[in-house]
Amino acid sequence: MTEHAEYVLSEIIQVTGDSKSRAFWKKAIKELGANKVAEDLSELKLQTHRERKKNPAAYLTTLLKERMNLNTTPKKPAIKLITYFEKTQQDLFQHLMPIPIPKDEKGESGNMPTPYSGKNIPWPTFIGPEFFTLSTNKKKSDTVMYTPRSKEGTGPAIALIRGKISPDSKREYGIPTTHHWKVFSALQLAWSQEKCKFSQYDNGTLVCFIVVAAKELARLLGWKHWQHLGKNDLRWLKDIVTDLKSMPYYLRWENKEGLEGYGFYLVGDVSLINRKTSAGHETLFNVSFSSTVSWQLLERHAVIRPKQMLYVKSELASLVWLYLEPNLRANDKACINLSNLIKVLNLPEAGWHKLKALRKQQFAKAVKEINGQRLADGRKMIVTIEKGLNDYQLAAHLEGYAIKQLED
Length: 408
Hints:
Helices cover 38% and strands 22% of the residues. It has helices at 3-16, 22-32, 34-50, 56-72, 89-96, 178-193, 214-220, 231-246, 291-298, 315-331, 338-344, 356-370; strands at 108-111, 121-124, 142-146, 149-150, 153-154, 158-162, 197-200, 206-213, 249-252, 261-264, 267-277, 280-289, 302-305, 333-337, 380-387, 392-399. It has a 5-stranded antiparallel β-sheet. A 4-stranded antiparallel β-sheet has the order 3-6-9-10, with no helix packed on it. Strands 14-16-15 form a 3-stranded antiparallel β-sheet. 34% of the residues are buried.
């Protein structure tokens, strides 16, 4: 063994306290190389720092065996995000069009034949970072450019109006922020954990719905004191969920049949129940997703995103993650000037946008929170800020193997 390999072996024994497995540790180092084993040892140290592992040796053994199996098993081509897209641009816009729900008809309830696992967030692929803004944005509506994607590739950018149901409307309802994105994601996660319920109507409309307690929603969002929600926290949740029903979008899209565009929502209906229980008061949300979102979820035009996204505190970091993940899944790497990233994310105007040093400072804070985070398939995002020719750049790539089975 080389000097470096001997050092890694001694570190393993020191961290795990397991010298009896020396033969296995040496075999892993020989097959994988000392550097790869050192990576998994670093992962063990990180996890041990975050939460005390009862059996660190067993945890490291699992990581190393996964790598060793990947070395001996023929690698399948990585599943690209494009797998989950609509076939054509025409299909995409046809299925995004809202379908009216019969008012006097009670739909027949059912569950997806093959539901999502409920371990992570099923996210409709048509929804990108363009749909959300920062809470510092005081505008009640605006127009941004939206680039639709399908299996055909990316189509020409079209106008997406946020906060208005139609271009000529005089009423503005507000633009969903990253706070709305988090709650919407938590609702989808709760829906997937309840076996993906939906209602079907005689006209063929399918609407996904979920009944979820406010405390459960807070737990999914990663709130520390979710079991004891204060009045302000509960009021905030009620307002955000209700906002999702009332904040519209409008897509300007014209076709040969005379269609000019259509308005839609992410959530179709919301009702709320307050009741007394033996443990105190309880608030239940009864949420139906819009027909637009429901179709995409039930047809599995969705990608699985890690629930750890919900725990990111920085609003800017959340938007950056929303931008990065589909690009990394499609290309394994991404690089963009910070000045261009500000435009792509449609960030509300701020003084720090104008100076390179301040741009670097703000994005560095966001990167700190998402660097090292893992996708749902287990691969790690490595995100850095680097110096480019005329501006600092955000650079990212995926590290490791897709060791977890993704849902189709």
